[in-house]
Specification:
Helix content of chain A: 55-70%
Largest sheet of chain B: none
Number of strands of chain A: 2
CATH topology of chain A: Cytochrome Bc1 Complex, Chain D, domain 2
Strand content of chain B: under 5%
Oligomer: heterodimer
CATH superfamily of chain A: Cytochrome c-like domain
Order of helices and strands of chain B: HHHHHH
Structural class of chain B: mainly alpha
Number of strands of chain B: 0
Number of helices of chain B: 6
Number of domains of chain A: 1
Radius of gyration of chain A: 18 Å
CATH architecture of chain A: Orthogonal Bundle
Largest interface: A-B, 13 and 18 residues
Order of helices and strands of chain A: HHHHHEEHH
Chain lengths: ~140, ~180
């Protein structure tokens, strides 16, 4: 279908198609989009980037936040608070591996929400966070 | 005469060729055998455990310690290291099968020295480990060592990821320089 489109298309259309393909390759974190969609049914209000940022950065009574390990900027690597082990950048724009595996997203939500908030995250929180992260 | 010389040459030639082949093939076989013994950590183990810390070779702790660690992943030395049941079962099996054990050939059998009946959970708490690092502990006496100073093996043992902890390979200068 793509080839037939390209064959028929004018240079302008071909360029547009190419741009779309490139964009989808760079920004598509399809899994996270699917998961955001799934969380919607359990969430009370629509997900927002702002709420995601708030949840990510809010310092808990135990002094912890997501920044404790991931660092202030998600475009550069962070480090584990105790072992110092490097944690690669979270932003998909610099680290395309991020948000591409459902198994990993679930694993780290479980571990890190429990460590940071002392409980599992709600669908609302997870959706907000995924939305915020996916556009970084 | 010519024929005799040729015969001698043939004998010498065959001898040389034979020797070269013998040493060459022998060398490759020995190298292969040794390479097989090198530490090749399980990929899933490294992914699961190596994300937060150096993926300690299973042979550094007895099976009882690993079992204790795997039972308490929800509070893993004040961190949460929970994982799904399937992964946990796989990692547990891998650790048990490759754990430090009496009678199992190991480069690290010194860690078995004075092992208590109930072995500690931390490698750094093994009497054998403490004994092996006695001189470092002496050198660092009086220095305020934060908890976990010895945890990142690779800070000093730069080839730890290949399971090499030999004294001869130690890098000059100690401490957390790789962070």
């Amino acid at each position: 279908m793509i080839t037939s489109l390209l064959a028929k298309s004018s240079p302008k259309r071909a360029f547009l198609l190419l741009a779309l393909l490139t964009m989808s390759l760079v920004y598509a974190t399809v899994i996270s989009d699917v998961m955001i969609e799934e969380y919607k049914s359990e969430a009370a209000r629509p997900f927002t980037i702002e709420a995601g940022f708030e949840t990510w950065t809010a310092v808990q009574p135990n002094g912890r936040s997501c920044n404790t390990c991931h660092g202030e900027s998600l475009h550069i690597a962070g480090s584990h608070q105790k072992t110092g082990k490097r944690i690669e950048a979270m932003a998909p724009s610099v680290n395309p591996d991020r948000l591409t595996s459902r198994k990993k997203i679930n694993k780290w939500f479980l571990r890190n929400c429990k460590w940071t908030y002392g409980r599992e995250c709600t669908a609302q929180e997870k959706g907000d966070i995924l939305l915020w992260l996916s556009q970084l | 005469m010519d024929e005799h010389l040729n015969k001698t040459q043939r004998v010498i030639g065959s001898g040389l060729l034979g020797t070269v082949l013998l040493f060459g093939v022998g060398g490759i076989v020995v190298y292969g055998l040794e390479a097989e013994q090198a530490y090749q950590p399980d990929a899933l183990y490294v992914e699961e455990c190596g994300a937060c810390h150096y993926a300690y070779p299973p042979g550094l702790l007895p099976a009882a310690s690993w079992a204790g660690i795997m039972r308490g992943l929800e509070d893993h030395f004040e961190d949460n290291a929970e994982t799904d049941d399937e992964t946990a079962a796989y990692v547990s099996k891998y650790l048990a099968e490759n754990a430090l054990q009496m009678g199992r050939p190991s480069k690290w059998s010194m860690l078995l020295r004075n092992m208590p009946t109930e072995p500690p959970l931390r490698i750094t708490d093994l009497p054998g480990f403490i004994q092996a690092h006695e001189s470092e502990l002496e050198l660092l006496e009086g220095v305020d060592l934060s908890v976990g100073f010895f945890s990142p093996c690779e800070d000093c043992h730069r080839q730890a990821d290949q399971g090499l902890f030999d004294k001869e390979l130690l890098s000059k200068g100690y401490g957390p320089t790789s962070r």
